[in-house]
Amino acid sequence: MTAYVPAERPTLYFIGVTTTRSSIMKVFPAWAELLQLGEVAIKGIDFPPGAPAEEYREAVRFIKRDPLSLGALVTTHKIDLFNACRDLFDVIDPVAGLLGETSCLATHQGRLHCYAKDPISSGLTLARFLPPQAFAARPPALIFGAGGACIAISQYLMQPERGANRPASLIVSDRSASRLSELKRLHQQFDASFPVSYQHIDSTRQSDALLAGLPEGALVINATGMGKDLPGSPIGDEACFPQRAIVWELNYRGELTFLQQAQAQQASRQLQVEDGWDYFIHGWTQVIAEVFELPADAVAGDAFNALSDCALRVTRQGATS
Ligand SMILES: NC(=O)c1ccc[n+]([C@@H]2O[C@H](COP(=O)([O-])OP(=O)(O)OC[C@H]3O[C@@H](n4cnc5c(N)ncnc54)[C@H](OP(=O)(O)O)[C@@H]3O)[C@@H](O)[C@H]2O)c1
After folding, report:
1. Ligand 1 binding pocket, CB closer than 6 Å
2. I want to staple 299 with a disulfide (CB 3.0 to 4.6 A). Which of 30, 239, 242, 285 is the partner?
3. Using only C-alpha atoms, what is the Rg of the chain?
4. Which residue's alpha carbon is nearest to atom 7 within ligand 1?
5. What's the pLDDT tens digit per position in 215-264?
6. In the sheet where 41-46 sits, what is the strand order?
């Protein structure tokens, strides 16, 4: 059992695996100053992936009861923590209930809320870089990797309020059949208005073929973690992106092989190539806004740019990850 010590000042927790190595530990104090949050703190809580349910419950019970522990950002353990602690949450945001996961805990008026912020943060990131007419010619989207990020991004793309601003179809590939079946089960609840094709693949050659089958202007996303969490890229060096494709690598650090493969064809194929920096900033700032009860404009527009510049400065000053 971990001995949790009551917080001495308003505290945000970061529940992950190796949280002390994350650059957010240096970025957060700089952001706290910029956002005028006062004397606040960030603390990491590390669990190995798939930790016992009682360990998640202990952490969540502590945050719920400790007056100065205001909330948490959750990575890696989003689904396991949600399942282990469901009865401890006073309020479950509908998207968290739908996706069966939580990336954000926040106490508001003594009640513990849980939220799934990933569809919001991935959506804000896409909205920032997608041209207004990105889907006007009804191109498809292709997502390599059917994990948590793919669930969030596809949920965003399927939202009915997007009207015609949606891809004509979606192709998702994964090397795990169970991930694809789980995604399909969730998609049936999202009420997608476009067809989805679930491709079980086990080779780079098959990924290359999926890419080769795309028309001009398609949205192509690497959500496999390859190039950061795993070496390499889902596609081979010979793979060809479609003309004028919009290519998004979800990570911003690591060897980023997929990003480099896209950049190598950027000029010849007129690609728009994006990395995961803005996604990282939106992911954190959405949770900070929720936990510290900031108005939406505190982390949007010019404020978002200032937070991003500040994080860049701090990370360049020598943070390790
Ligand atoms: N910038 C940001 O703030 C941000 C935010 C969210 C996510 N991300 C990044 O996005 C990546 C994905 O995140 P996630 O949470 O969705 O991870 P995840 O849940 O682990 O999903 C990745 C999926 O891709 C599959 N995969 C691995 N290699 C593949 C290949 N060659 N072809 C097709 N599928 C393959 C994995 O299968 P196995 O399970 O068999 O390995 C897994 O199902 C991570 O690297 C994460 O760091 C970045």
Report:
1. 144-150, 173-176, 179, 201, 207, 223-226, 228-229, 234, 250-252, 276, 279-280, 283
2. 285
3. 20
4. 149
5. 999 999 999 999 998 999 999 999 999 999 999 999 998 999 999 999 99
6. 41-46, 11-16, 69-74, 104-108, 111-115, 91-92
